[in-house]
Amino acid sequence: MNKSQNTPGGANKGSFIVFEGIDGSGKSTQIRLLHEHMKENGVSCYVTMEPTDSPIGSLIHQIMTGHVKTDNKVIAALFVADRLDHLLNDVNGIVNKISEGTTVLMDRYYFSSYAYQSVDMSLDWVIQANEPSSSILRPTVNVFIDVDPDVALERIAKNRFQRELFEEKSRLIKVREKYLEAFDRLKDVENIVVVDGNRDEREIAREIRERVGAFAR
Predict the structure, then answer these.
(1) 8: Cα separation from own chain's centroid
(2) Below-50 pLDDT ranges, the chain
(3) How far is the C-alpha of 117 from the C-alpha of 75, rounded, in Å?
(4) Which of 99, 114, 118, 210 matches a 20 to 30 Å C-alpha distance to 76?
């Protein structure tokens, strides 16, 4: 059953579809395939991701790649600031896009913060820190691509020249567990679709199209 969503705008507002998963889960591929499918069906789409390419997001990227060192609480706070700007920015803020009728496909949102940051700090703290974002805009549906950490690391090794801060097996195992904990905690207020990401990408894409269709127009 669809949960009540605090998406902005009127009857013609766009959908907000968020893809979640540990690093190497295949989110980027599945977003691309869903975007292609939606365009073929005449749906106006905007694809984006977090962290963004804004000044705040660029600082987060520098931290993730080891060029800047800081405390984990600082990282969590930077994600909160980047997320709020992503929502409310006058130029390309996603709240305005959805209100105008554009469907937004996004790679990571606040569940990524819940999962990654709560490995080092209280999940309650991270949820509360992100409350301004969740109160402004909840996803129409969260698509979690669930993949074995070993499979994820194999994909990362094939596609990256450099691993980021959280891309170690022990860490990814914990992050996956935190995702599942957060989903269970918020299952009554969030629409969550869990998809087996260990399969062929086209098979995964077909399932995502079918299951997202129950929530998004």
Answers:
(1) 19
(2) 1, 162, 165
(3) 8
(4) 99
Secondary structure class of 182 (helix, strand, coil)? helix
The pLDDT tens digits of the residues spanning 45-55 come to: 999 999 999 99
Start-to-end Cα distance in the chain = 15
Tell me the residue ranges of DSSP E strands in 21-160.
45-49, 103-107, 141-146
Identify any residues that bridge with 196 across adjacent strands, giving them in sequence order.
Answer: 146
C-alpha torsion angle, residues 202, 203, 208, 214 (rounded to 10): 130
Q: What is the pLDDT of residues 13-57, one digit of tens each?
A: 999 999 999 999 999 999 999 999 999 999 999 999 999 999 999
- Which tokens sit at 136? 């402004």
Amino acid identity of residue 124, one-letter, is D
Residue given tokens 């600031």 in the structure block: 81
Say if strands 103-107 and 16-20 run parallel, antiparallel, or are unpaired.
parallel
Which residues have C-beta within 8 Å of that of residue 84, sequence separation ≥ 6? 132, 133, 136
pTM over 0.85: yes
Q: Quick one: pLDDT at residue 103?
A: 97
Q: What separation in angstroms does the CA of 158 have from each of 151, 163, 190? A: 11, 11, 33
pLDDT at 164: 53
What residue type is assigned to position 112 of the chain? S
